[in-house]
Design goal:
The complex is a heterodimer of chains A (143) and B (674). By secondary structure, chain A is an alpha/beta fold. Helix content of chain A is 43%, strand content 15%. Chain A has a single domain, classed as Response regulator (Rossmann fold, 3-Layer(aba) Sandwich), CATH 3.40.50.2300. In chain A, strands 2-1-3-4-5 form a 5-stranded parallel sheet, sandwiched between helices. Chain B is an alpha+beta fold and 674 residues long. Classes of the chains: A alpha/beta (143), B alpha+beta (674).
Chain lengths: 143, 674
């Protein structure tokens, strides 16, 4: 199974669509893997279960992660991902509605690369998603 | 050493000398008297017996001579012989008279004997005269007869009498001789007795004095032996030589005195150092240490205590601790002092409040101890004082926090009521949540212990709100935008307006939710106080606001503002809210002025933000801080009605007050204290 460049973990279909549109607008729509729950996300990242056939050696270039997810929460995914030698170098951008300081502090403690509070206004939202995603994508490619 | 253990040598010597002088004086006087008496007696021996007996013998010789001369007279052959003989008789007669006179003077015995002899001599004279007459008349034979007869008788009688006198004188001489021998004998005896007595007395006195000298010296030497030991270096071999032992003892004493003095000097130095150490330790101790006299005055104080009360050591010299004590606490210290002096308690620990020189009150923990001398007489109090103002402040804060928490429960209840009500009003979707809130409210009312659970629920509620409510809003806004972007050609003007309305409303709701979340978060925030620079904050607010209101002409007047101790982030929020309100409500006013400043009222800083905007009727002043309370329509002035509630909440969290004064069309002033 082929590994996509961007792994986008989000359960809200509206947000997915808005994000995809924003990315497409900035020409980074290619190669995005969308996963809608936490458990599946972990299987994908560690190439287990449904994604056992994925080449574990090949990591996504960037992960866009929502915090509020079914089954396994975003913070839990972040924690496990950053704890693993093999996956801890993948840049993770947390995309969330939560302005809670607690979430922000915890995310940074686990080693998040960027933390973005989703703006309500569409223009702002679209701007934030694409620039941050792009930024990390480019940074990682150049490595 | 006990007093009078040894007799006084001096007094004994004086007593002995006086006694000896007295004894020898007595002996001399007695001896002198004896010599005088002896002299007298021997004088008499010489004078009387010799003079008297010699004179009497002379008389006898003279009489014999006269008797022979008388014979010559009778036998004289011629006139010349006759006259020569008579002259010889007259001459010796005269000598006899003289001798009689002498004897009469010196004779010690009965003068009758002398007189008898003299009478016989006188009685002989007529016979002599008769003989001479007879011879002259030529009757030589008669004369010879008378001379041989009567004359001879008288001579014999006279010689008898003179013999008697010689015998008496001899007897007398013998008795005087005997007398002088007696006196000499007696004197010898006396002298011997005195010699013995004075010898014995002298020996006794000698022993008496010897005892007063020798006994103490021997005693001292024994003591020296005990102290220094006779095997010590330099100890005299012959301990009978007491003076050398004493000399050794004195030089030993001098040596030891020197060593002792050196030791004392070393000890004194060590003591001084130790004392300095203690003094330094006390001086630099982190707690106050004082020595209080029985009269309550400070004898000694250390630096820490000076710091606690704010007075210098010199000022404290003249002060008592009661002067420095808060009126209500004065008895605590006094009572202990009285009890301690009476012996009821020696040590104590208590808390009391001192008055700082600046007038402030210092809470202290005091522990005091009565120090006594070896005779159990109270000397002074040793007292340690530690400043517990901080601790007290924390205790106070703790109680305030506790009260605050209690208040919070009520407030939270009220808030939840409001929130539930408002939510039900604004959105049908929120009515479901209202039930949850009601449930939480009930739980809060039932028991305080469930408050934590409620808080958690509230938090998860906020969390949900931020997630679950914002996502659909974002979708609404996002898709309205997409609709506008992607299908613009198919949409007529009216449709575009509706889409715009949908978008605006959804955006408003987003702001509302953000404000609500801020408002509820404020209740949970812990204050992070520091000294903050208000003018800098005001400047930041101005910068931020001026970016948004380029076309509005407002003159800001910022008066000097003091530094305050508060949470910088929250105060920024307050200033942002109040100043942006002022800007907002001066929108329609020409020459808009916003003034920020501070006045002092009853030692309290009152900050104010004043505008000359549209103002409001003071009858709504009570409502202005209520959540969702708005005095103007959104069309007039945009806003959610939560801003001032947040401001009030921040000020209350800082234990301050906030109020407002306003007049319609004149302007509004917000006042607050921190």
């Amino acid at each position: 199974m082929e590994t996509k460049e961007i792994l986008y973990i989000e359960d809200n279909p509206s947000d997915i669509e808005l994000t995809l549109r924003a990315l497409k607008k900035h020409n980074v729509a290619n190669s995005i893997q969308i996963i809608k729950d936490g458990e599946e996300a972990l299987e994908y990242i560690f190439a287990t279960g449904r994604y056992a056939d994925r080449d574990i050696e090949e990591n996504p270039k960037v992960i866009l992660l929502d915090l509020k997810l079914p089954k396994v929460g975003g913070l839990e995914i972040l924690k496990r991902l950053k704890a693993e030698e093999h996956t801890k170098t993948i840049p993770v951008v947390v995309l969330t509605s939560s302005r809670e300081e607690k979430d922000m502090i915890e995310s940074y403690n686990y080693g998040v690369n960027s933390y973005v509070v989703k703006p309500i206004k569409f223009e702002n939202f679209s701007e934030a998603v694409s620039t941050l995603g792009l930024y990390w994508l480019l940074i990682n490619e150049s490595l | 050493m006990k007093k009078n253990k040894y007799p006084k040598i001096q007094s004994r010597l004086i007593i002995a000398s006086i006694l000896l002088i007295f004894i020898f004086g007595f002996i001399n006087v007695t001896y002198y008297i004896d010599v005088v008496r002896l002299n007298e007696v021997t004088g008499k021996i010489i004078e009387h017996p010799f003079i008297v007996s010699n004179s009497v013998r002379d008389i006898e010789i003279y009489i014999n001579t006269i008797h022979r001369s008388m014979k010559d007279v009778t036998l004289s052959t011629n006139d010349i012989e006759f006259k020569e003989s008579i002259a010889k008789v007259d001459e010796y007669e005269e000598l006899i008279y003289q001798k009689f006179e002498l004897v009469n003077k010196k004779f010690l015995g009965d003068l009758k004997i002398v007189n008898e002899a003299y009478t016989e001599f006188v009685n002989w004279k007529p016979i002599r005269d008769k003989v001479i007459d007879l011879v002259e008349s030529g009757n030589v034979n008669d004369a010879a007869k008378i001379t041989k007869g009567k004359g001879n008788n008288y001579i014999i009688l006279l010689l008898q009498k003179t013999h008697k006198m010689i015998d008496f004188a001899n007897d007398k001489a013998e008795s005087f001789n005997q007398n002088s021998i007696d006196i000499l004998q007696k004197s010898k005896k006396n002298f011997f007795i005195f010699f013995i007595v004075s010898f014995v007395i002298s020996i006794i006195l000698f022993l008496w004095i010897y005892q007063s000298i020798s006994y103490p010296i021997n005693n001292m030497i024994n003591r020296i032996k005990n102290v220094s030991g006779d095997k010590m270096k330099g100890f005299p071999k012959n301990t009978n030589n007491q003076l050398s032992v004493l000399d050794f003892a004195i030089s030993e004493f001098e040596n030891r005195k020197k060593i002792l003095e050196e030791n004392i000097n070393i000890r004194t130095k060590e003591l001084k150092e130790a004392r300095n150490l203690i003094v330094n330790a006390i001086d630099n101790a982190p707690i106050g240490i004082v020595e209080v006299g029985l009269d309550g005055k400070f004898n000694e104080v250390n630096m820490a205590f000076c710091d606690i009360v704010g007075y210098s050591t010199k000022e404290l010299d003249e002060m008592t601790f009661t002067e420095l004590t808060v009126e209500e606490d004065k008895n605590i210290g006094k009572e202990f002092m009285e009890n301690a002096i009476k012996g009821k308690e020696l040590k104590t620990k208590f808390e009391k409040r001192y008055i700082h020189k600046s007038g402030g009150i210092v809470f202290t923990s005091v522990s005091s101890l009565l120090v006594k001398d070896e005779n159990n007489k109270p000397l002074h109090f040793f007292t340690q004082i530690s400043d517990i103002s901080e601790q007290k402040k924390y205790e106070l804060e703790l109680t305030t926090h506790k009260n605050e928490l209690e208040n919070k429960i009520f407030m939270r209840t009220a808030e939840l009521d409001e929130k539930a009500l408002n939510l039900s009003r604004s959105r049908q979707a929120l009515t479901f949540l209202l039930e949850d809130v009601n449930e939480i409210k009930k739980q809060l009312e039932i028991s305080n212990s469930k408050l934590l659970d409620s808080n958690k629920e509230l938090e998860s509620f906020s969390y949900s709100v931020s997630h679950d409510l914002k996502a659909p809003l974002r979708a609404v806004i996002g898709f309205s935008q997409i609709l506008n972007e992607d299908f613009a050609p198919q949409l007529n003007q009216e449709s575009k307006r509706y889409i715009g309305l949908i978008k605006d409303n959804a955006e408003n709701m987003g702001t509302l939710i953000n404000d609500l979340l801020n408002f509820s978060r404020m209740g949970r925030t812990v204050l992070q106080k520091s000294q903050i620079d208000l003018p800098a904050i005001v400047q930041r607010v101005k910068n931020e606001l001026q970016a948004g209101v380029k076309d509005q002409k407002i003159s800001f007047k910022v008066n000097p503002l003091p530094m305050i101790n508060a949470d910088e982030k929250l105060i920024y929020h307050v200033m942002l809210n109040l100043i942006s309100n002022a800007v907002k409500f001066t929108d329609n006013v020409k020459n808009a002025i916003v003034e920020i400043g501070c006045t002092s009222k009853k030692n309290e800083n009152v900050f104010y933000v004043k505008d000359n905007g549209i103002g409001f009727d003071m009858k709504y002043a009570g409502k202005i801080f209520d959540v969702f309370q708005r005095l103007h329509t959104v069309e007039e002035f945009p806003g959610t009605g939560i801003g001032l509630s947040i401001v009030q909440r921040i000020i209350h969290k800082h234990e301050g007050k906030i109020w407002v004064e306003s007049e319609k069309n004149k302007g509004t002033t917000f006042f607050f204290t921190i």
